[in-house]
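Xylan alpha-1,2-glucuronidase: structure tokens wanted.
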Amino acid sequence: MDTKMYNMWLQYDSINNQTLREQYTEFFSKVRLIGNSEIFDSIKEELEIAVDKMLQQKVGWTASDDAKIVIANSSDWNIKAVEGLNEEGYTIVSNGNQLKIIGNSDRGALYGVFHLLRMMQMQESITTLSIKEQPTNPFRMINQWDNLDGSVERGYSGNSIFYENGKIVEDKTRIKDYARFLSSVGINAISINNVNVWEEETYFITKKYLPEIAEIASIFRGYGLQLYLSINFASPIAIGDLETADPLDGSVKNWWKDKVREIYDFIPDFGGFVVKADSEHRPGPFSYDRDHADGSNMLAEALEPFDGKVIWRCFVYNCLQDWRDRSTDRARAAYDHFKPLDGRFHSNVILQIKNGPMDFQVREPVSPLIGAMSETNQMMELQIAQEYTGHQIDLCYLIPQWKEVFSFDTYIQGEGSTIEKIVAGQIHPYRHSGVVAVSNIGNDENWTGHTLAQANLYGFGRLAWNPSLESETIAKEWLKQTFPQNNDVEQTILDMLMSSWPIYENYNAPLGVGWMVTTHLHYGPSIDGYEYSRWGTYHFADRDGMGVDRTKETGTGYTEQYEEPNRSMYNNLDTCPDELLLFFHHVPYKHTLKSGKTVIQHIYDTHFEGYEQVLGLQKKWDQLERVLDEERFNNVKERLERQRLNAREWRDQINTYFYRKSGIADEKNRTIY
Ligand code: GCU
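Answer:
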């Protein structure tokens, strides 16, 4: 497929600016690659695609010293590693006559090439450059939640590109294109199956599937991504002939050792396992009275000889809670389970922790577990898939949300202990760390359902590479590469993206309380949907007020999991930020926020405003009708109309519900039902 929808940000539109065209043409008349590997093959292929499309020219390959562009891995060229840069780093230096891209590894060279292509797509001059780049985060990983039957858990963009009808897809072109997209933004690892490993997927680690999985691994290898698999902790019982999966049992240990050896026979650079254990009914060490350190270390021992990793998820909580029980607090769970185990995990175990303590809500505080374990490797998990943020029907540019998370100061080692530094391994001496996200792609032609949701995938990669990039900068980069170069287009879509998360929040559950969504589906409002359920997700609205009391004195004590001054800041009603008020406190509807409004009036105002803002988005988009291609224009137009209906439903249900509960009228007397 070669359409504008399909090509996402690798459009490689023809360069019309004459000066730049001549400049690029000259450079690409003589290109020398010093390197010989699958990654260098990808470099060659990518340059051929890009140069053909941008300049309608063939790359002039050469082996001579007078090349205009030289691309090399520093070690192949017998030059010292580019100083001060890590293994994935690169330099791009250009003096007008010659441009050199030198990576500290093949992967570094590949990233350098994608950097150059990005500059060309953004129509920047490449004659005088002195660029030094390296990723901040060692791990920059994507988790697919794809199932063998072709479905994608929490997928909103069609079916899987990896599997269909119980089989791995035969035609792997699309997987290769996905690898190109991911690599172009610096992603270096991927797990290709759902963290919930069902019956047949448990066999992925057997001969039945390994040959084909090895093929997929080699596609990703060519683009610098290491392949991981999610595994079923009970595999020794499910696919072996053991009666136990007890991690301290000798036969179980040996079973995994043999299994791992077999996997490495097929995939010599296999990354390791992603494990969801003792979480939402998945099996784990608890069944044998063992803890998470026992469980993960057993797998770590098997993987260690091959330098494999265990990525152990911390999404562990009681999902059979009694709603009558006000003392159990799901938000506390990850910290309570894992923090006491600090120091017991092997050095090739990495804990994967969701950004918030609940589950990817539109607004949550940062998980207090991140950074709280100084002797245990940690990675942060984000969700690009818009499970609770509009299913890629509603527009929600998530980079600003993630930026807030990265910049949160935990004070774990005094001021400046930001999440950004913790996950980069700069606060504690982690051996492995970084960022991982649940993918938002599927086999829809445009990959992400909503065309503008491509920006979230792009942005995740860029932010994982460099968390200090600004949200606007990332959006502009993405826009320049994705849509025709036109200031109006850029400004209009930029405004839409930048306003979209606050708009979504406006018509969603208010002030950080979360969860008022249709159960299971997680799209559209259902205010009491989770209120009397077992999931631990409540708003406690009554006729007087609402919110969850998580304070030390009268609530669940969750605030105690933070360091000072965050602990007191959240615990104290006067200092708790408005946007998280109902996450931490139960307050009367007439409680006055720092904004000067009462809680109830805030609810009415934001919900009326949110809907109006969606009408504003529609108006903005309509202005682009003549400048954009029909396919992408119509795709977004259709989504915006569905977003409008969703926002209307949220507005009216939330306002009506709280009006009926509280009996307090809207000061502005607008229609409430
Ligand atoms: C959420 C999501 C599930 C997913 C789970 C997880 O609860 O709704 O579909 O399996 O997160 O992260 O494991």
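The chain has 18 helices and 17 strands. The CA atoms of residues 257 and 302 lie 5 Å apart.

Cheers.
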